[in-house]
Design a protein that fits this description.
alpha+beta, seven-stranded antiparallel sheet, elongated, 40 strands, 16% helix
Amino acid sequence: MKNIFKFMVPFMALALTLVSCEDLMDDKSSIDNQFAKATNATVSLGSLVAVDYQTITATGSVANPSDVIEEGIQVSTDANFATAILSIPNDTVAESFEITYGGANYETDYYVRAYAVTKTAGTKVSAAQMVTTPTPPLILTWKNLGKATYREDCFTTFWNVDNLSYKLTLMECEQIPGWYHLMNPYGVAYGYNEDGDYDASKDYYLDIHAEDPTAVYIGNSPTGCNWGYGEITIYSLAGMYIDSGEMTLEDAKAAGLTGTLVDGVLTFPAKTLLIGMSEYNDGSFYYANSNGMFMMLLPGVKLADYSSAVSYAGLFINPAGETFVLGDLALGADVTTAKAVVYDAAADAAAVADAIAAGELEAEDVAGGRIQLAMPEGLSGKVQIVVAVIVDGELKSFAADTFEYYGGGDANPWKSLGIGYYTDDIVVPLFTKAGESYTYEVEIQENSDTPGLYRIIKAYAPVGEYFGVGGGDQDIEVHAENAKGVYILDQPIGMDLGYGSISIETVAGYHVATYGFDAVMADSPEEFGTLADGIITFPVFEREASDGSKVNCQAWLNMGGNNYFGGMNGELKIVLPKASEAARNKARSMAKATNFAIRLNGGKAAPANIKVKDAKAARLIKNAVRAKLF
């Protein structure tokens, strides 16, 4: 029995030993399994966005995060994360997270990856992504340069207004030199504005881009000004094409659509600017700067005025029979004298001026005002006056005007008698509030083949000049072959004041055209004018107007399919150059440079069917040639 017990004890001890080893193996396996589970954590980078030029956001996720003690993103400018690694941890460990980095630099490539620090396997990282931060927004500031001088040539597209010059504040962008804002160009400073014509509640400006002074353009520039057709906007062709993407700046420059800024003077070629009104033809744009007069002078820049303008004023024949050409010369403020010649009109006026400046062509010294030039011998037909303004040997400007001269030869029967006077009592009274007649100088010619047939050269050009519309350059023939039977047939004067082309005729002329001279002389001789002592006058008749009032009538004005009374003051008259000195002196004293009102307001005796219009609507030139662009 003892032997069995002795035998069993060692066996039990062995059994006990084996059981203990098995228990230990079970515990290690459990730990190994837990270890394997912990090191199974994975990390991924989700979205990566550059929110702005200094902010990046990234999202990440961690699978099996039980062994993770820290998670987040790493940011570097190195694709291999070799240097300058910035680790940004999440606040807590979670399966997903989002982190914002706000210390980025603009225009920089950043490489970003997610990371997770584990207890047992160190740091795990995701694949990296790259993001580029954008350019920061440019914060613009503007400095006041002072007062620029602005010469306007945009409103002239639709309205018959002068090219006014006035001072305006000019701002320049401090970050982009050459980018200008011309402040409130069509506000209170614009001389044709009236109360209510513009929005004074805020600033408006011309957006002028002269960053490249050889290729200047104007961006879309609402003016805040409204003359009854909606807000007026100024633009440039180059600006429009650039904004639409149809052209680059270089394209626009090559096409001749841009302006230039030279020595502080900004100009644009004619018809490269645009004007539009929001309620006129759906806001379409039309060519502006049609006169080529648009200009801006930078503050402190003074433009020397070397301008010149000349107009033919007739011929003067002295007692010795010598013929002189008369002209009216206007010179700029910085010009005291110029040189002038009478030359064949077939020659280019610019070439003639160049020849004068080069000393190749002899010319007379002239000052502003009335000039008198000797008519060269042998010159006949189309002739011109050419004036050259020369400063320090350089041609600064030139001016020219043409006329006809035949010297009474067989080539043309018209012979100039010299300067006479014409009193218009037909056109001017109808279109001015005062309704007064207007006396001015004219050249008068006589037909050598038909003595007594006279021609008033460019009879209404002075009227067109004072109304500011030009024209009036048609010659008017006056029949005075019978000194007691003077008449004017229906003839256009070459002018349109907004109601259609104008023509004039005397009462007798109207009937002569229908019945013939002899019949009217026999039946109504009192209708004719008379020529006595070099003065032509016309009879005055009383007629009933459409409104029932009684008005004087010496002639008819025809326009737009309607007829209107002329000679309402009874002062229609022609003083020939051969009239007595006393008569010519009297006419000269009556001649006055009246500043006619541009606005057509009907006048004191306006026909009833000419309605009084809004001032600016009346200035709208309905028949102006406009090239619609869009």
